[in-house]
Amino acid sequence: MSTVMITGASSGIGKALAEHYVQLGWQVIACGRDKVRLTALASSSSLITTLAFDMTDKQQVQAIELALPALDLLIFNAGDCQYIDDVLDFNAERFERVIQTNLISVAYGLQYWLKHVNQGGRVVFVSSSAELLALPRAEAYGASKAALSYLGESLSIDLAQHNIHVSIVRPGFVATPLTAKNNFPMPMKITSEQAAVKIVQGINKGKHHIDFPSHFTCIMKILSCLPFTLWRRLAVRM
């Protein structure tokens, strides 16, 4: 039986991924901070084991290592999104929190969990299509996701000699508790279940970049090819 470990599995994309892999007959280790939601998730299947801890606490991340079996798939999905609303009063504490949650905590996980991934296994980083293009108010979120994608790409090179593969997920807008806080239009938004299907399909195909919805991410890629001065003018007007 194959085993997958998923962080941020108490809601949103992580929860949908856990449920999807259970349907495929995988043993699922679902991780998160919300014990109540994790308990409810575990009650749905005997194939789900839960681990409740804080990814931003290095000691807790290290302690989890003692409970880990060999892994065929490790999915770093936990993340946060907070915006810099007043750029002249730059909120360094908010910036630090986002970087800590979306990037530094992943490094903690890599330090203590990567050695448990089997040869032929895969590490997946859930980044964002926001890393493709500079967006307003996204100084913290965009920077964290751009760095996460770079981390994944660099690891992909170094892990090749160990026969461990890497996938980087760059979704557009997905309906989750996190995006529910957004107060702006979210074009081409899809459900968490739809996102999970796209991610699993991409992993099964051995894709390095898993981008969806295709129309949305295609537009983002085209805009990213514009000279920055032109894109900046467009972004300022919007």
Itemize the secondary structure elements and their pairings.
Elements: E1 3-6, H1 12-23, E2 27-32, H2 35-42, E3 48-52, H3 58-64, E4 71-76, H4 92-113, E5 117-126, H5 139-159, E6 165-171, E7 174-175, E8 190-191, H6 192-204, E9 209-212, H7 214-224, H8 228-237
Parallel strand pairs: 1-2, 1-4, 2-3, 4-5, 5-6, 6-9, 7-8
Describe this structure in words.
The chain has helices at residues 12-23, 35-42, 58-64, 92-113, 139-159, 192-204, 214-224, 228-237; strands at 3-6, 27-32, 48-52, 71-76, 117-126, 165-171, 174-175, 190-191, 209-212. Helix 1 packs across helix 6. It has a seven-stranded parallel sheet with strand order 3-2-1-4-5-6-9, with helices on both faces. A two-stranded parallel ribbon has the order 7-8. Helices cover 44% and strands 19% of the residues. The mean pLDDT is 96. Helix 2 links the parallel strand 2 and strand 3 (48-52). The protein has 238 residues and is of the alpha/beta class. It has one domain (3-237): Rossmann fold (3-Layer(aba) Sandwich). The protein has eight helices and nine strands.
